[in-house]
Amino acid sequence: MLILYETTLQLVSRPSNFLAMSECYARGMSAAPRVELSEKEREALTSTVRAKTSSQRDVFRARIVVLAAQGKTNVEIAQALGASRPTVGLWRSRFARLGLEGLKDRPRPGRPRVYAEAASTTRRRSASAY
């Protein structure tokens, strides 16, 4: 596509998706960051998805990143996983910025949880104790 700028009278070549990208920016949307996986990251994500002991939260996030690396759009990923576009965009961008560390939960504000500590220190009775 060629665009003529009147001030310089120059022909400037733009990529074919230029109008689509500029339309996104005009609407306040930004283009989804490109996700490329190293072999080590791909192995870590696929093992998370396949492991039976992985939390569903981690599996969900790993699936988003794997589909993004396959070139899927946020809309396609959201439809495939039954998620919202903002959720897909959040995990895609966090992975693009921070890598595998970006898929972990951030510390939450407020008082730390007490239940998790109490549960791990509580002694359980064996079946023979009854």
Key phrases:
about 50% helix; mainly alpha; 6 helices; two-stranded antiparallel ribbon; 2 strands; about 130 residues
Describe this structure in words.
It is a single chain. The chain is mainly α. It is 49% helix and 6% strand. It has helices at residues 18-26, 39-50, 56-69, 74-81, 85-98, 115-121, and strands at residues 2-5, 10-13. Strands 1-2 form a two-stranded antiparallel ribbon. Strand 1 (2-5) and strand 2 form a beta hairpin. The longest helix has 14 residues, at 56-69.
So how many helices?
A: 6
Largest sheet: 2 strands, antiparallel
**N- to C-terminal distance:** 80 Å
Which strand order does the major sheet show?
Answer: 1-2
Low-confidence stretches: 1-27
Total beta-strand segments: 2
Summarize the structure.
By secondary structure, the chain is mainly alpha-helical. It is 49% helix and 6% strand.
